[in-house]
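Weekly modeling sync, notes
Attendees: S.R. (lead), two postdocs, one rotation student

Agenda item 3: backlog of single-chain predictions. S.R. asked that every request posted to the team notebook include the full sequence so nobody has to chase files. The rotation student volunteered to paste the first one in as an example of the format we agreed on. Action items at the bottom.

Example entry:
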Amino acid sequence: MTAKIISGTEVAKEIREELRQEIAGLKEKHNLVPGLATVLVGADPASQSYVGGKEKTSIELGIYSERHDLPEETTQDELLALVDRLNKDPKIHGILVQLPLPKHLNETEVLFAINPQKDVDGFHPVNVGKLMIGEPDYLPCTPHGIQQLLIRTGVQVEGAEVVVVGRSNIVGKPIVNILLQKRAGANATVTICHTGTRDISFHTRRADILIVAAGRPKAVTADMVKEGAVVIDVGVNQVGTTAEGKRILVGDVDFEGVKEKASAITPVPGGVGPMTITMLMVNTVKAARLAAGLA
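Predicted structure, as returned to the notebook:
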């Protein structure tokens, strides 16, 4: 058995087309243009690439986009002042501060300073708390993207044994909370594994759906996966470059081995990655609706 490939590129394209139509309708019927501000401190090439992708997608969909590139030496007070100004700007419905920030800046303080109604990343403690009790305004983008991949490719989540490898605040913890809620596309039994788990393989081999965000290349191998499982690989690890200088990327799952046992699997690249920016756009449009009383 060779696994079906779950293409995040294709699912993201489908969602973006739905968004394009929704945004056009908001402009036509309500004179409402969703607005997203991105803030980048410093010149980290990966962060510049991520912010550039978000800006490009915003413009393509018809979202008003503001990009704020700040020098590496920006102070905490200067960054907080910008966040405060964006909080008060009615044109801006979503604020995204690109992480990681330079080491001299306090990330927690900056994220907490964002108005929760404009926190389209879903990282503010107010939004984390709402997710925990099953009443979220915004779902964090990568976990929301994972859920949409499962739903839109017909994977049965309700009643499934889901195992998550990795307990980060960005992926592991929120996807656990999303999938255990008593809702459509969720209502699963969820186990989370991490570096303190004594026998990860014992848990992963029970999974109907295995979500891997371990941060380590090829950490999950074929012997750790149940026959017929659905495998979602969140990892992106650069393991070298080609002769032409192109990056060689692999996931946290040994794709070649696992695809022979799984019923479905996400590739790297082209799996979860394209969904993250797309769900950021979903949250920005939702933020605009909430601000206008149209949710």
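Discussion: group reviewed the output briefly. The chain has two domains: 31-116, 141-273.
Action items: rotation student to repeat for the remaining queue; S.R. to check formatting next week.
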